[in-house]
Design brief:
By secondary structure, this protein is mostly helical. It has one helix spanning 7-83. The longest helix has 77 residues, at 7-83.
Length: 84
């Protein structure tokens, strides 16, 4: 009977087990919340990437329009200066 645990040691181990079980249960809840949040954020990333692509296309179109207007303006100025 040398391997018998004292009542104090049993109490200590049960307390530790209870604490670990509580910590585990809390961690499971936290992990579940984080998975949900992660899923939402991944969806948001897809939305933002799509929006970013659309905005890049708009910017590219606007740059082309500005370039076209710049050519038109400078052509007019050249023609006017050639007339004088």
């Amino acid at each position: 009977m040398e391997n018998e645990l004292t009542k104090e040691e049993i109490k200590k181990r049960l307390t530790r087990l209870n604490n670990l079980e509580m910590m585990y249960a809390n961690q499971v809840k936290v992990n579940k919340k984080l998975k949900i949040e992660n899923h939402k954020l991944k969806g948001r990333i897809v939305e933002l990437e799509t929006e970013n692509q659309e905005l890049r296309k708009r910017v590219e179109k606007l740059e082309l329009i500005v370039e076209e207007f710049t050519r038109m303006i400078f052509k007019r100025k050249k023609k006017e200066s050639e007339k004088n």
